[in-house]
User: Which sequence fits this backbone?
C-alpha cells in the first residue's frame, strides 16, 4: 500500500525547532525532544511544511503541493479529506557532534538511535562486513561504549581508553569499524553510549545563545526582552522515514525538481542564520 523511503538531514548551521522563550518564561525544554532519549527531533510537520513551500516555487507548484501534501486545513474545509500522498515521521538524531579537547569533535549516538536508523534504512543500506555485502538490518548494533578505530583517546591499563569531554569523561571499552553506521560510509571519530547517558551528553553539545530585544530609541534591553535560545549544533546528522501512498496516476514525487538533495532551511530564527541544512532523499 505504501512505498517506503527515507531522508537524511545534515545541519550546516545550528538548527532550532521549538519554543522562542526560555527559562525566564517557565519553559525548560527549548527544543522539541524525543520522550525517551531526551534528544532533539524535527517534527514531521516541519519537514512537510518546508517541502510544501519549496514545491510552490516550481511550475504549477500550488496544485502540485496540494496533490502531494494535501490541502491546507481551513474552517471551510473541515469536512474535506485532506490526506496527503507523502507522509513524514519525525527526524531523530543519528550522530551528534560534541566538542572534545584534542579531537576536536567526536560524533556520539546511542543504541536506541541506531536501532531507529536500522529500522528505517535497514532494507536499503548495504554495507561491507568481512568482505561480504550485507544489508544494515542483518548486522548487530555495537555494544554501548564502543568507539571508532580512528578515535583518539587516552589508553588505560586493561585495554580500555578514556575519552574526555568538557563536563566529564567516558570509558571506551573497545574500538571497531563504525563506518557502516554513517550514511556516507566514511568513519568519523565516534562513540556509542548507553541510552541513559545520551540525554546528558546531548545537553552538553547544544548550541546556546542569549538574545535581547532593545528599545527603539536607545541601546538598552526592553522590558522582558531578554531570552535564551538553544539549537542542535552544526554537523548533526538526522534521519526520518517517508511513506508514499500507491498512486495510480503515474506521477513521480520530485520535491527538488528532479534532484535527490537540496539546501533548505528548517525551524525558526532563519533571519539570524539558523536552520541551514542539506536534505538528501534515498
Assistant:
Amino acid at each position: 500500500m505504501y512505498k517506503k523511503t527515507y531522508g537524511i538531514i545534515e545541519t550546516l548551521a545550528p538548527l532550532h525547532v521549538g519554543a522562542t522563550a526560555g527559562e525566564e518564561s517557565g519553559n525548560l525544554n527549548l527544543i522539541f525532544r524525543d520522550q525517551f532519549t531526551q534528544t532533539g527531533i524535527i517534527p514531521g510537520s516541519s519537514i512537510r511544511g518546508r517541502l510544501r513551500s519549496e514545491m510552490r516555487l516550481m511550475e504549477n507548484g500550488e496544485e502540485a503541493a496540494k496533490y502531494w501534501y494535501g490541502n491546507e486545513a481551513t474552517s471551510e474545509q473541515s469536512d474535506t479529506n485532506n490526506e496527503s500522498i507523502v507522509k513524514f515521521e519525525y527526524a531523530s538524531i543519528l550522530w551528534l557532534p560534541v566538542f572534545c579537547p584534542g579531537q576536536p569533535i567526536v560524533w556520539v549516538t546511542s543504541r536506541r538511535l541506531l536501532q531507529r536508523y536500522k529500522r528505517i534504512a535497514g532494507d536499503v543500506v548495504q554495507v561491507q562486513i568481512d568482505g561480504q555485502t550485507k544489508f544494515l538490518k542483518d548486522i548487530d548494533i555495537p555494544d554501548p561504549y564502543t568507539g571508532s578505530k580512528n578515535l583518539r583517546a587516552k589508553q588505560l591499563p586493561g585495554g580500555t581508553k578514556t575519552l574526555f569531554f568538557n563536563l566529564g569523561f567516558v570509558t571506551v571499552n573497545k574500538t571497531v569499524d563504525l563506518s557502516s553506521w554513517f550514511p556516507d560510509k566514511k568513519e568519523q571519530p565516534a562513540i556509542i553510549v548507553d541510552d541513559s547517558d545520551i540525554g546528558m551528553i546531548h545537553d552538553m553539545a547544544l548550541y546556546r545563545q542569549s538574545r535581547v530585544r532593545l528599545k527603539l530609541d536607545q541601546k538598552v534591553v526592553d522590558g522582558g526582552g531578554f531570552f535564551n535560545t538553544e539549537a542542535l549544533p552544526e554537523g548533526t546528522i538526522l534521519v526520518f522515514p517517508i511513506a508514499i501512498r500507491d498512486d495510480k496516476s503515474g506521477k513521480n514525487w520530485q520535491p527538488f525538481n528532479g534532484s535527490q538533495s537540496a539546501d533548505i532551511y528548517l525551524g525558526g530564527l532563519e533571519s539570524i542564520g539558523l536552520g541551514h541544512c542539506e536534505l538528501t532523499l534515498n
